[in-house]
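Shipment paperwork, digital attachment
Item: protein structure file
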Amino acid sequence: MRRESAMTKSTRCMALLLLVSVVTRGVFAVNDGMLPNGNFEQGPNEHELHGTRVMGQYAIPYWEISGFVEYIGSGHTQEDMILPVPEGAWAVRLGNDATIRQQLCVTRHAYYSITFTAARSCAHAEELNVSVTPDFGILPIQTVYTSSGWDSYSWAFKAKHSTVWLSIHNPGHEENPACGPLIDFIGIKTLHPPHHTTGNMLRNGDFEEGPYIFPDVPWGVLVPPMSEDLYSPLPGWMVMSDTKVVKYVDAAHHAVPHGTRAVELVAGRECALLQEVATAPGRSYRLSFSVGDAGNGCEGYLAVDVYAARATLKVPYESHGTGGHKRAELVFEAITNQTRVVFHSSNHHMKSDASLCGPVIDDVSLVAVHK
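Attachment content:
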Protein backbone atom coordinates (compact mmCIF):
# COMPACT_ATOMS: atom_id res chain seq x y z
CA MET A 1 0.00 0.00 0.00
CA ARG A 2 1.37 3.45 -0.89
CA ARG A 3 2.16 5.78 1.94
CA GLU A 4 -0.02 8.85 2.16
CA SER A 5 1.93 11.85 0.92
CA ALA A 6 2.25 14.99 3.00
CA MET A 7 0.28 16.92 0.35
CA THR A 8 -2.54 14.36 0.40
CA LYS A 9 -2.70 14.42 4.18
CA SER A 10 -2.70 18.21 4.22
CA THR A 11 -5.50 18.34 1.63
CA ARG A 12 -7.56 15.79 3.53
CA CYS A 13 -7.00 17.61 6.81
CA MET A 14 -8.05 20.96 5.31
CA ALA A 15 -11.15 19.36 3.81
CA LEU A 16 -12.01 18.02 7.24
CA LEU A 17 -11.49 21.45 8.75
CA LEU A 18 -13.87 23.04 6.26
CA LEU A 19 -16.46 20.29 6.64
CA VAL A 20 -16.55 20.34 10.43
CA SER A 21 -16.42 24.12 10.77
CA VAL A 22 -19.68 24.29 8.83
CA VAL A 23 -21.31 22.34 11.64
CA THR A 24 -20.92 23.37 15.30
CA ARG A 25 -17.36 22.56 16.23
CA GLY A 26 -13.98 22.93 14.56
CA VAL A 27 -11.06 20.56 14.13
CA PHE A 28 -7.94 22.66 14.28
CA ALA A 29 -4.64 21.97 12.59
CA VAL A 30 -1.80 22.02 15.09
CA ASN A 31 0.89 24.66 15.05
CA ASP A 32 3.43 25.08 17.84
CA GLY A 33 2.08 27.53 20.38
CA MET A 34 -1.23 28.40 21.99
CA LEU A 35 -4.26 26.33 21.00
CA PRO A 36 -7.28 28.21 19.62
CA ASN A 37 -8.68 30.15 22.61
CA GLY A 38 -6.11 28.36 24.74
CA ASN A 39 -6.08 31.37 27.08
CA PHE A 40 -9.92 31.41 27.37
CA GLU A 41 -10.13 35.13 26.66
CA GLN A 42 -13.10 34.36 24.37
CA GLY A 43 -15.87 33.42 26.77
CA PRO A 44 -19.51 32.37 26.94
CA ASN A 45 -22.40 34.71 26.22
CA GLU A 46 -24.19 36.01 29.31
CA HIS A 47 -27.20 33.75 28.78
CA GLU A 48 -24.85 30.71 28.87
CA LEU A 49 -23.63 31.52 32.38
CA HIS A 50 -25.29 30.88 35.72
CA GLY A 51 -23.12 33.00 37.96
CA THR A 52 -19.68 31.69 37.08
CA ARG A 53 -20.89 28.25 35.98
CA VAL A 54 -20.86 27.58 32.23
CA MET A 55 -24.18 26.05 31.21
CA GLY A 56 -23.71 25.28 27.50
CA GLN A 57 -21.67 22.35 26.19
CA TYR A 58 -20.19 24.56 23.45
CA ALA A 59 -20.45 27.89 25.28
CA ILE A 60 -16.67 28.48 25.40
CA PRO A 61 -15.49 29.08 21.82
CA TYR A 62 -13.31 26.28 20.37
CA TRP A 63 -13.93 24.04 23.41
CA GLU A 64 -16.43 21.39 24.44
CA ILE A 65 -17.17 21.02 28.15
CA SER A 66 -18.92 18.62 30.50
CA GLY A 67 -19.42 18.53 34.25
CA PHE A 68 -19.09 21.50 36.59
CA VAL A 69 -17.02 24.07 34.65
CA GLU A 70 -16.70 27.71 35.75
CA TYR A 71 -15.55 30.77 33.84
CA ILE A 72 -13.40 32.74 36.29
CA GLY A 73 -12.39 36.38 35.93
CA SER A 74 -9.14 37.66 37.39
CA GLY A 75 -9.64 38.81 40.97
CA HIS A 76 -12.68 36.57 41.54
CA THR A 77 -13.07 35.85 45.26
CA GLN A 78 -14.26 32.70 46.96
CA GLU A 79 -14.46 32.39 50.76
CA ASP A 80 -12.10 35.36 51.20
CA MET A 81 -9.62 33.82 48.74
CA ILE A 82 -8.72 35.77 45.59
CA LEU A 83 -8.36 33.64 42.47
CA PRO A 84 -5.73 35.28 40.23
CA VAL A 85 -5.31 34.68 36.50
CA PRO A 86 -1.69 34.44 35.29
CA GLU A 87 -2.16 36.41 32.05
CA GLY A 88 -5.19 38.13 30.57
CA ALA A 89 -8.51 38.38 32.34
CA TRP A 90 -10.05 34.89 32.26
CA ALA A 91 -9.47 31.23 33.12
CA VAL A 92 -11.65 28.15 33.63
CA ARG A 93 -12.08 26.06 36.75
CA LEU A 94 -12.79 22.35 36.54
CA GLY A 95 -15.07 21.31 39.39
CA ASN A 96 -16.40 17.84 40.18
CA ASP A 97 -15.93 15.41 37.28
CA ALA A 98 -15.45 18.28 34.84
CA THR A 99 -13.80 18.02 31.43
CA ILE A 100 -12.72 20.52 28.83
CA ARG A 101 -11.64 19.22 25.46
CA GLN A 102 -10.72 20.26 21.92
CA GLN A 103 -10.36 18.28 18.71
CA LEU A 104 -7.11 18.71 16.81
CA CYS A 105 -5.77 17.79 13.39
CA VAL A 106 -2.32 16.24 13.83
CA THR A 107 0.23 14.15 11.94
CA ARG A 108 -0.29 10.46 12.55
CA HIS A 109 2.60 8.76 14.39
CA ALA A 110 4.15 12.13 15.28
CA TYR A 111 5.02 13.04 18.87
CA TYR A 112 3.53 16.07 20.61
CA SER A 113 3.84 17.75 23.97
CA ILE A 114 0.97 19.57 25.67
CA THR A 115 1.71 22.48 27.99
CA PHE A 116 -0.94 23.99 30.24
CA THR A 117 -0.95 26.26 33.28
CA ALA A 118 -2.89 25.24 36.38
CA ALA A 119 -3.47 26.37 39.96
CA ARG A 120 -5.08 24.70 42.95
CA SER A 121 -8.16 26.29 44.47
CA CYS A 122 -9.90 24.77 47.50
CA ALA A 123 -9.53 20.99 47.14
CA HIS A 124 -6.80 19.26 49.14
CA ALA A 125 -5.45 16.58 46.80
CA GLU A 126 -6.05 17.88 43.33
CA GLU A 127 -4.95 16.05 40.20
CA LEU A 128 -5.72 16.21 36.51
CA ASN A 129 -6.25 13.50 33.93
CA VAL A 130 -4.78 14.62 30.60
CA SER A 131 -5.55 12.39 27.62
CA VAL A 132 -5.37 11.93 23.90
CA THR A 133 -7.08 8.58 23.28
CA PRO A 134 -5.86 5.94 23.95
CA ASP A 135 -3.08 7.56 26.03
CA PHE A 136 -3.61 9.38 29.31
CA GLY A 137 -1.64 10.58 32.32
CA ILE A 138 -2.64 11.48 35.87
CA LEU A 139 -0.77 14.64 36.85
CA PRO A 140 -0.65 15.43 40.60
CA ILE A 141 -0.75 19.16 41.30
CA GLN A 142 -0.61 19.14 45.12
CA THR A 143 2.92 20.58 45.22
CA VAL A 144 3.14 24.23 44.21
CA TYR A 145 6.46 25.36 42.73
CA THR A 146 5.80 29.12 42.32
CA SER A 147 4.90 31.95 44.68
CA SER A 148 1.92 32.89 42.48
CA GLY A 149 0.30 29.46 42.86
CA TRP A 150 0.33 28.88 39.09
CA ASP A 151 2.53 26.21 37.52
CA SER A 152 2.89 25.09 33.91
CA TYR A 153 2.73 21.33 33.32
CA SER A 154 3.70 19.23 30.32
CA TRP A 155 2.45 15.91 29.00
CA ALA A 156 3.37 14.09 25.78
CA PHE A 157 1.63 11.69 23.40
CA LYS A 158 2.12 9.91 20.10
CA ALA A 159 -0.71 10.57 17.65
CA LYS A 160 -2.49 7.34 16.74
CA HIS A 161 -4.88 9.12 14.34
CA SER A 162 -4.89 12.26 12.20
CA THR A 163 -7.67 13.82 14.30
CA VAL A 164 -7.57 13.48 18.08
CA TRP A 165 -9.40 14.78 21.13
CA LEU A 166 -7.25 16.51 23.72
CA SER A 167 -9.05 16.32 27.08
CA ILE A 168 -8.24 17.75 30.50
CA HIS A 169 -10.39 16.18 33.20
CA ASN A 170 -10.74 16.71 36.94
CA PRO A 171 -11.64 13.30 38.43
CA GLY A 172 -12.24 14.81 41.89
CA HIS A 173 -15.50 14.66 43.82
CA GLU A 174 -15.49 17.30 46.55
CA GLU A 175 -18.28 18.25 48.92
CA ASN A 176 -18.24 21.65 47.21
CA PRO A 177 -18.69 20.80 43.49
CA ALA A 178 -16.95 24.04 42.50
CA CYS A 179 -13.66 23.01 44.12
CA GLY A 180 -11.07 22.08 41.57
CA PRO A 181 -8.06 23.30 39.59
CA LEU A 182 -8.04 26.49 37.56
CA ILE A 183 -6.73 26.10 34.00
CA ASP A 184 -5.28 28.72 31.66
CA PHE A 185 -2.81 28.84 28.77
CA ILE A 186 -3.02 25.54 26.87
CA GLY A 187 -0.48 25.03 24.08
CA ILE A 188 1.12 22.30 22.00
CA LYS A 189 4.46 21.56 20.39
CA THR A 190 5.59 18.95 17.87
CA LEU A 191 8.46 16.94 19.32
CA HIS A 192 11.35 15.76 17.19
CA PRO A 193 12.98 13.03 19.29
CA PRO A 194 16.74 13.44 18.78
CA HIS A 195 19.13 10.64 17.94
CA HIS A 196 22.66 10.07 19.14
CA THR A 197 25.14 12.55 17.71
CA THR A 198 28.83 12.30 16.99
CA GLY A 199 30.69 12.80 20.24
CA ASN A 200 27.74 12.08 22.53
CA MET A 201 26.13 8.73 23.29
CA LEU A 202 23.23 10.46 25.06
CA ARG A 203 20.15 11.77 23.29
CA ASN A 204 19.08 15.36 23.87
CA GLY A 205 21.99 15.93 26.23
CA ASP A 206 21.68 19.69 25.77
CA PHE A 207 17.92 19.60 26.52
CA GLU A 208 17.15 21.77 23.49
CA GLU A 209 14.22 19.51 22.56
CA GLY A 210 11.36 19.68 25.04
CA PRO A 211 7.87 21.00 25.81
CA TYR A 212 6.53 24.36 24.67
CA ILE A 213 7.33 27.26 27.00
CA PHE A 214 4.92 30.19 26.79
CA PRO A 215 6.84 33.41 26.02
CA ASP A 216 4.98 35.38 28.70
CA VAL A 217 5.25 32.75 31.45
CA PRO A 218 8.41 33.23 33.55
CA TRP A 219 8.39 30.09 35.69
CA GLY A 220 9.28 27.32 33.21
CA VAL A 221 7.44 24.04 32.61
CA LEU A 222 7.18 21.04 34.92
CA VAL A 223 8.00 17.62 33.43
CA PRO A 224 6.04 14.87 35.23
CA PRO A 225 7.33 11.51 36.49
CA MET A 226 7.49 8.84 33.82
CA SER A 227 5.35 6.48 35.88
CA GLU A 228 2.52 8.89 34.99
CA ASP A 229 3.57 9.49 31.39
CA LEU A 230 4.00 7.00 28.53
CA TYR A 231 5.99 9.39 26.33
CA SER A 232 8.43 11.93 27.67
CA PRO A 233 7.90 15.66 27.01
CA LEU A 234 11.69 15.80 27.40
CA PRO A 235 12.77 13.35 24.67
CA GLY A 236 15.50 10.92 25.66
CA TRP A 237 15.04 11.49 29.39
CA MET A 238 12.94 9.93 32.13
CA VAL A 239 11.78 11.47 35.39
CA MET A 240 11.58 9.01 38.26
CA SER A 241 9.42 9.89 41.26
CA ASP A 242 6.07 9.16 42.85
CA THR A 243 4.64 12.66 42.57
CA LYS A 244 7.51 15.12 42.11
CA VAL A 245 8.84 16.69 38.92
CA VAL A 246 11.77 18.47 37.28
CA LYS A 247 11.46 21.95 35.79
CA TYR A 248 12.29 22.76 32.15
CA VAL A 249 13.63 26.33 31.90
CA ASP A 250 14.53 28.67 29.04
CA ALA A 251 17.22 31.30 28.51
CA ALA A 252 14.61 34.04 28.05
CA HIS A 253 13.69 33.86 31.75
CA HIS A 254 16.58 31.98 33.41
CA ALA A 255 20.35 31.61 33.38
CA VAL A 256 21.08 28.61 31.14
CA PRO A 257 24.63 27.18 31.00
CA HIS A 258 24.50 26.19 27.31
CA GLY A 259 22.10 26.90 24.45
CA THR A 260 18.54 27.99 25.20
CA ARG A 261 17.15 25.26 27.48
CA ALA A 262 18.15 23.44 30.68
CA VAL A 263 16.63 21.43 33.56
CA GLU A 264 16.26 22.67 37.14
CA LEU A 265 16.14 19.92 39.80
CA VAL A 266 13.46 21.39 42.06
CA ALA A 267 12.41 18.36 44.14
CA GLY A 268 15.53 17.38 46.07
CA ARG A 269 16.16 13.66 46.49
CA GLU A 270 12.50 12.86 45.80
CA CYS A 271 12.98 13.04 42.02
CA ALA A 272 15.68 11.83 39.62
CA LEU A 273 16.42 12.71 36.01
CA LEU A 274 17.89 9.79 34.09
CA GLN A 275 18.65 8.24 30.74
CA GLU A 276 19.48 4.66 29.81
CA VAL A 277 22.27 4.16 27.27
CA ALA A 278 23.80 1.10 25.58
CA THR A 279 27.25 0.30 26.98
CA ALA A 280 29.83 -2.48 26.76
CA PRO A 281 30.57 -4.25 30.06
CA GLY A 282 34.12 -3.63 31.22
CA ARG A 283 34.58 -0.53 29.07
CA SER A 284 35.21 2.90 30.58
CA TYR A 285 33.13 5.99 29.84
CA ARG A 286 33.32 9.69 30.67
CA LEU A 287 30.18 11.58 31.65
CA SER A 288 30.56 15.38 31.41
CA PHE A 289 27.95 17.99 32.37
CA SER A 290 27.33 21.51 33.69
CA VAL A 291 25.94 22.32 37.15
CA GLY A 292 24.74 25.82 38.00
CA ASP A 293 21.86 27.97 39.14
CA ALA A 294 19.01 29.42 37.09
CA GLY A 295 19.59 33.05 38.10
CA ASN A 296 16.22 33.00 39.84
CA GLY A 297 17.28 33.78 43.39
CA CYS A 298 18.05 30.19 44.41
CA GLU A 299 20.98 30.88 46.76
CA GLY A 300 23.24 28.76 48.93
CA TYR A 301 25.01 25.44 48.74
CA LEU A 302 23.50 23.59 45.80
CA ALA A 303 24.76 20.08 45.06
CA VAL A 304 23.95 17.40 42.51
CA ASP A 305 24.37 13.66 43.07
CA VAL A 306 25.32 11.70 39.94
CA TYR A 307 25.27 7.92 39.44
CA ALA A 308 26.42 5.67 36.60
CA ALA A 309 27.02 1.93 37.03
CA ARG A 310 28.88 1.61 40.39
CA ALA A 311 30.35 5.11 40.24
CA THR A 312 28.95 8.08 42.18
CA LEU A 313 29.84 11.75 42.39
CA LYS A 314 28.59 14.71 44.41
CA VAL A 315 29.11 18.04 42.64
CA PRO A 316 28.87 21.07 44.96
CA TYR A 317 28.00 24.50 43.62
CA GLU A 318 27.92 27.70 45.67
CA SER A 319 25.08 29.80 44.29
CA HIS A 320 24.45 33.53 44.68
CA GLY A 321 21.16 33.16 42.81
CA THR A 322 22.33 35.32 39.91
CA GLY A 323 23.36 32.65 37.41
CA GLY A 324 26.59 30.80 36.73
CA HIS A 325 27.78 27.23 36.30
CA LYS A 326 30.76 24.91 36.33
CA ARG A 327 31.73 21.75 34.49
CA ALA A 328 32.12 18.36 36.15
CA GLU A 329 32.79 14.82 34.99
CA LEU A 330 32.42 11.25 36.18
CA VAL A 331 34.47 8.37 34.75
CA PHE A 332 32.93 4.93 35.24
CA GLU A 333 33.24 1.35 34.04
CA ALA A 334 30.10 -0.24 32.61
CA ILE A 335 28.96 -3.49 34.22
CA THR A 336 25.99 -4.31 31.94
CA ASN A 337 24.79 -3.72 28.39
CA GLN A 338 22.55 -0.89 29.62
CA THR A 339 23.71 1.84 32.00
CA ARG A 340 21.51 4.39 33.71
CA VAL A 341 22.91 7.89 34.01
CA VAL A 342 21.13 9.49 36.99
CA PHE A 343 21.01 13.06 38.36
CA HIS A 344 19.21 14.41 41.40
CA SER A 345 19.55 17.34 43.76
CA SER A 346 21.28 16.46 47.03
CA ASN A 347 18.85 18.57 49.09
CA HIS A 348 15.67 20.61 49.00
CA HIS A 349 16.06 24.34 48.40
CA MET A 350 13.72 27.33 48.62
CA LYS A 351 13.95 30.91 47.44
CA SER A 352 13.17 33.90 49.65
CA ASP A 353 9.52 33.76 48.54
CA ALA A 354 9.32 30.14 49.81
CA SER A 355 8.99 28.64 46.31
CA LEU A 356 10.98 25.50 45.55
CA CYS A 357 14.17 25.65 43.49
CA GLY A 358 17.36 23.71 42.88
CA PRO A 359 20.52 23.25 40.83
CA VAL A 360 20.45 23.41 37.05
CA ILE A 361 21.78 20.61 34.82
CA ASP A 362 22.80 21.19 31.21
CA ASP A 363 25.11 20.18 28.37
CA VAL A 364 25.38 16.49 29.33
CA SER A 365 27.62 14.27 27.21
CA LEU A 366 28.81 10.67 27.41
CA VAL A 367 31.78 9.26 25.49
CA ALA A 368 33.80 6.05 25.59
CA VAL A 369 37.29 6.38 27.02
CA HIS A 370 39.89 5.03 24.61
CA LYS A 371 42.78 3.37 26.41
